[in-house]
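pipeline stage [seq->struct] | target=17975_t:CDS:1 | organism=Funneliformis caledonium | residues=135
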Amino acid sequence: MSSKVETNDACFFVYPYFYSLQDPRPKQPVFKAIPVNDDLKYKRKYKELKKRIREMEEENEKLSLKLTRAKKNIQRLRIERSFLFERLEQSHSKDNSESDITSTPQRVVDSEEDLSSVGSDSNDDNGSHTISMTV
């Protein structure tokens, strides 16, 4: 079936078309059988990984809710701080306008002990206390 062709002192064999260097049949993938123990091991590992993924997703959900709450609290506290600064500014401006009206500061004394240390204490004939302050 093969024919001999001679060219330049070299000898080549010509093969008919049905004899090729490559197998004309398409190659199918060869699957090796996995032992039963390995198969069970992989299934167990797969289930463990799925469980870990679920746990991580739940933890992620909890943390994202916690983060959302924290951001809302921060926003609320910023609003409260702003409100308190405004009230503080209003009270300072009110105090400044009142201090412009009255030139002498007034002191309030709460107890008898404070009276002796602040100024001279004298009683009127009516029994009322009079305190003289030196500034």
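stage status: PASS
auto-comment: Strands lie at 3-7, 10-14, 120-123, 129-132. The CA atoms of residues 122 and 128 lie 9 Å apart.
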